[in-house]
Design brief:
Elements (H helix, E strand, L loop, with lengths): L3 H8 L9 H24 L6 H22 L4 H18 L2 H21 L7 H25 L5 H23 L7 H28 L2 H17 L6 H18 L5 H5 L3 H12 L5 H29 L6 H10 L13
Helix pairs in contact: 2-3, 3-4, 3-5, 3-6, 4-5, 5-6, 5-7, 5-12, 6-10, 6-12, 6-13, 7-12, 8-10, 10-12, 10-13
């Protein structure tokens, strides 16, 4: 009897601390203001609405996501939230294209990083799928906010800028969450290098094809994309389907056991950022943009499930669903809940 009690306590998943009344009020106010911003965006999309309604909704969502990201990473919420509000208000009031574009870029970057930081460790593959859906939902709301700000942009420059800034900010945050380079380890270093190579090759390949590719090959790829748009009304985005979603799915699953999972999750910002890029694409209708995102998520989830399965096999986990779940619960890393600061 004395030896069984400690074993049961060790197998029990750590409990997450409850929110204090003050923090509970803050989370409730944050959710309420975010819903108000989403409602303004929805109202601003109607033909009868005035222009300032959608703009106000975009600014409010941007401020809430900024405050959420800062609170999640243990920063000064009111300071950075006020700065985001000042920038958004200045962009809307002055109607300066440069300010609008700057506000849109920052909104896209903050949304992408916040989508990753809002996830929690996933013990099973289904839980990992749930976290991907949470991140994509945040990405969709952020995309609506960017569209509501009505920026004047070159889509390719906007995409490269926001992808680079999102990755840089994500790695800065993950550097603290993952205990610096010391916590990266050999395995984490290999994963980061592979992710960087996949991202670089995907972007470089698309750019080389667009500028210097053989006309026959470019026409073939464009015809394939056009066929997908006409037949399926959407075409998956390579970076999102091959890197962003699988990395996020594998990363949250790895975080349940090892802090190196944060380094993998950092590449998930590419999936959230490309939601905005898709809805800003003038060549796509709203339905095509939505289906493109859906197809990218489905393909990425399938790839992520295969990677998780291979990871479990290579790390020597016991076969069987119940056995893997018992091992996962026994070795679950303690991490703050979704509405609590990570640092």
């Amino acid at each position: 009897m004395p030896t069984t009690a400690p074993r049961r306590r060790a197998e029990r998943a750590p409990r997450r601390s409850r929110l204090r009344p003050g923090r509970r009020f803050g989370v409730g106010a944050w959710v309420l203001l975010l819903l108000v911003g989403i409602a303004c965006l929805a109202l601003g999309a109607t033909p009868e609405a005035q222009a300032w309604v959608g703009e106000a909704g975009g600014v409010l969502v941007a401020v809430m996501f900024t405050a959420g990201l800062v609170a999640r990473t243990g920063g000064r919420t009111y300071v950075y939230g006020s700065l985001a509000l000042a920038l958004g208000a200045a962009a809307v009031v002055t109607d300066e294209p440069m300010l609008r574009t700057g506000a849109a870029v920052l909104t896209c970057v903050v949304t992408a990083v916040f989508a990753v930081m809002a996830t929690v460790p996933a013990v099973t593959t289904l839980h990992a799928v749930r976290e991907v859906l949470v991140a994509m939902l945040i990405g969709l709301v952020g995309a609506a906010a960017v569209v509501g700000l009505e920026p004047t942009i070159s889509l390719s420059r906007f995409a490269y800028t926001t992808l680079g800034a999102s990755l840089a900010l994500a790695f800065l945050v993950v550097f603290r969450l993952g205990a610096g380079l010391h916590g990266l380890g050999r395995r984490g270093l290999v994963v980061v290098l592979i992710g960087s190579v996949v991202l670089a090759l995907t972007l470089a390949y698309a750019e080389v094809l667009r500028r210097y590719g053989a006309p026959e090959l470019v026409d073939t790829l464009l015809d394939g994309r056009q066929w997908a748009l006409e037949t399926l009304h959407g075409a998956p985005r390579p970076v999102q389907a091959l890197l962003g979603v699988p990395a996020l799915m594998w990363g949250v699953h790895m975080r349940a056991r090892r802090r190196q999972g944060w380094w993998v999750c950092a590449f998930g910002v590419t999936a959230a950022a490309q939601v905005t890029h898709t809805f800003l694409d003038p060549s796509l209708t709203l339905a095509e943009a939505g289906l493109t995102t859906l197809y990218s998520v489905i393909l990425g989830v399938l790839i992520g499930a295969v990677i998780i399965r291979l990871d479990l096999l290579l790390t020597g986990s016991r076969p069987g669903r119940r056995a893997r779940t018992d091992d996962a619960v026994a070795t679950l890393r303690p991490e703050p809940g979704r509405t609590q600061p990570l640092l």
